[in-house]
From TrEMBL:
Its main location: membrane. It comes from Paracoccus aminovorans. One of its GO terms (molecular function) is antiporter activity. GO terms for biological process: monoatomic ion transport. It is found in: Cell inner membrane. This is Multidrug-efflux transporter. The lineage of its organism: Bacteria, Pseudomonadati, Pseudomonadota, Alphaproteobacteria, Rhodobacterales. It is a multi-pass membrane protein. The chain crosses the membrane at residues 52-80, 92-111, 131-148, 160-182, 194-218, 239-260, 272-290, 311-334, 363-384, 396-415, 421-439.
C-alpha cells in the first residue's frame, strides 16, 4: 500500500470515525452498565436483562434505518452545496424516527406474553417486561439522538456528540447504584431501577444534542428546527425508501443474535446469562466497526456527491484496512484474556460465578472466530449506504442471517447436540456469508462505475 497516497484518507477516516466509535460505545455503555451491575444483583435478573435488551434492540434496529440512511444523503447534499436537501432530509428523518418509536411503544408495554410465547421462563419474562415498560420511552430519545448524530457526522462535527454521550456513563452508573440496590435511602428496584436510570440519562443526552445542533454556527444555515412542524412529504418518502431497507437489514442481523439469545434460553438460564456476557463483549468490539462504517458512509457519500470514483476507491480501501486491524486486535484480546474479561461482569463472591465464568469464557473463543467477518459485513454495508444502495443489501442480509445463520445455529445446537457452541458457529456462518456478498457487490459496482453514475437506486 502506498502510504503517502493513503495517509490523507487515513487521517480523515480516523478524525471522523474515532468520535463516532466513541459515541456508539458510550451509547451502548448504558446497557453495559445495566448488565454489569445486574450481574452483581442476581443471575435471574441478569438473564431477564439479556432478553429485555435483546427485545429493545430488535425494535431499535428496525427504527434506526432512518437515522443511519440519512447520513449518506446529507453528506452527498453537502458535497453538492444543496442546503435545502440537507434540511429536508434531516428533518424528515427525525419525524420518521420519532413516529416509529411512538408506534412500537405498545409492543414493549405488552412484551411479557410475547416472551412467554417464545419459550422464556415466566420469572424471566415478567422481569424483562418490567424493564421494557420503562425503557420503551428511552427508544424515542435514542432514535432521535442517532438521527442528530448522523446529521452532525455528515458535517464532520461528531466530537461534541462523543462528549455528551460519554458524560452519561458515570451518571447512569450512579443512578444504577442508587436505584437497583436501594442505596442512599432509595427503594430497591432491581431491573426497574436500571430502566429508570437508562431513560433518565438518554433523555438528558437528547436535550444536550438538540441544543448543540441548534447552536452550532456551521449548521445554522440549514435551519433544521425552524418551522419543524411543517411536513415535506417528498423528502419523507425519499428518506423512508432509503431508510426502511436499512432498518430491515439491521433487523435481520440483530435478529440473528436475538434468535441466538432465545435459543440459548431454551438450553438454560445459566447458559443464557453466560451467553449474554460473551455477546455483549463481542458487541463492544462491533461498535468500533460500526463507527468506521458510519465514517465510510459519510466519505463515500462525499465522493458520490462529487462523482469522484478514484477518491471513493481510496477512501474505501482505507476504512476497510482500519476495521480489519481493529478486528485482529479484538481476536487477540478474546483468545488471550477470556476469563479476565468475563470476570468484569460478575461478583467474585457469588456462588454461581465460577460456573458462569467457565461458560462465558468458552463462548468468547467462538466470538473471536467471527470478529473479522463481522467487521467486513458492517463495513460493506457502510460503503453501500454511502452510494445510497440499500435494497439489495437488505436481501443479502435476509439470506445470510435467516436462511443460513439461524438454521445452521439451530441444527448444530439441537439436532447435532453441540449445544451453546453450535449456536455460535451458526453466527459465524451467517456473518461470513454476508461479509463476502456485501463486499463483492460494492467492489464490483465500483469497478463498473455504477456508484458514480446518477441516479442511483434507493
Amino acid at each position: 500500500m502506498n502510504l503517502v497516497r493513503y495517509a490523507p484518507h487515513l487521517r480523515a477516516t480516523l478524525a471522523l470515525g474515532l468520535p463516532l466509535v466513541g459515541s456508539h460505545l458510550a451509547r451502548m455503555a448504558i446497557h453495559v452498565a445495566d448488565t454489569v451491575m445486574m450481574g452483581w444483583y442476581g443471575v435471574t435478573e441478569l438473564a431477564s436483562l439479556v432478553i429485555a435488551v435483546s427485545f429493545f434492540n430488535i425494535l431499535f434496529f428496525l427504527g434506526m434505518g432512518f437515522g443511519i440512511g440519512v447520513m449518506g444523503l446529507i453528506a452527498a447534499a453537502i458535497a453538492r452545496g444543496d442546503e435545502v436537501e440537507v434540511r429536508r432530509s434531516a428533518r424528515m428523518a427525525l419525524w420518521l424516527s420519532l413516529g416509529f418509536a411512538v408506534l412500537v411503544l405498545p409492543v414493549m408495554w405488552h412484551s411479557g406474553p410475547i416472551l412467554l410465547a417464545i419459550g422464556q421462563a415466566p420469572e424471566v419474562a415478567q422481569l424483562a417486561q418490567d424493564y421494557l415498560r420503562i425503557e420503551g420511552f428511552g427508544l424515542i430519545a435514542v432514535l432521535c439522538q442517532l438521527t442528530l448524530n448522523s446529521y452532525l457526522a455528515a458535517m464532520e462535527r461528531p466530537q461534541v456528540v462523543l462528549w455528551i454521550t460519554l458524560a452519561g456513563l458515570p451518571l447512569v452508573i450512579a443512578l444504577n447504584w442508587v436505584l437497583i440496590f436501594g442505596n442512599m435511602g432509595a427503594p430497591e428496584l432491581g431491573v426497574r431501577g436500571a430502566a429508570i436510570a437508562a431513560v433518565a440519562v438518554q433523555c438528558l443526552q437528547l436535550l444536550a444534542i438538540v441544543a448543540y445542533a441548534a447552536w452550532l454556527p456551521a449548521a445554522r444555515k440549514y435551519h433544521l428546527f425552524q418551522r419543524f412542524w411543517r411536513p415535506d412529504w417528498g423528502g419523507m418518502r425519499r428518506v423512508f425508501l432509503l431508510g426502511m431497507p436499512i432498518g430491515l437489514t439491521m433487523l435481520a442481523e440483530g435478529g440473528l443474535f436475538v434468535g441466538s439469545n432465545v435459543m440459548m434460553g431454551w438450553i438454560g438460564t445459566r447458559e443464557l446469562a453466560a451467553h449474554g456476557i460473551a455477546l455483549q463483549l463481542a458487541s463492544l468490539t462491533f461498535m468500533l466497526h460500526l463507527g468506521m462504517s458510519n465514517a465510510a458512509t459519510v466519505r463515500i457519500g462525499q465522493a458520490k456527491g462529487r462523482g469522484d470514483a478514484a477518491w471513493m476507491r481510496d477512501a474505501a480501501v482505507t476504512v476497510t484496512a482500519v476495521s480489519a486491524v481493529c478486528a485482529l486486535l479484538a481476536v487477540a484480546g478474546f483468545e488471550l484474556f477470556p476469563r479476565q474479561l468475563v470476570g468484569l461482569y460478575l461478583d467474585a463472591t457469588h456462588p454461581e460465578t465460577p460456573a458462569l465464568v467457565d461458560l462465558a469464557a468458552r463462548l468468547l473463543f467462538y466470538a473471536g472466530l467471527f470478529q473479522l467477518m463481522d467487521a467486513m459485513q458492517v463495513i460493506g454495508l457502510g460503503l453501500l449506504r454511502g452510494v445510497q444502495d440499500t435494497r439489495v443489501p437488505m436481501v443479502i442480509a435476509g439470506i445470510s442471517y435467516w436462511l443460513i445463520g439461524i438454521p445452521v445455529a439451530y441444527g448444530l445446537a439441537f439436532p447435532a447436540g453441540i449445544g451453546s457452541a453450535g449456536l455460535w458457529l451458526g453466527l459465524v456462518a451467517g456473518l461470513s456469508c454476508a461479509a463476502a456478498l456485501l463486499m463483492r457487490r460494492f467492489w464490483l459496482g465500483l469497478r463498473r462505475g455504477d456508484w458514480t453514475r446518477a441516479p442511483q437506486p434507493v
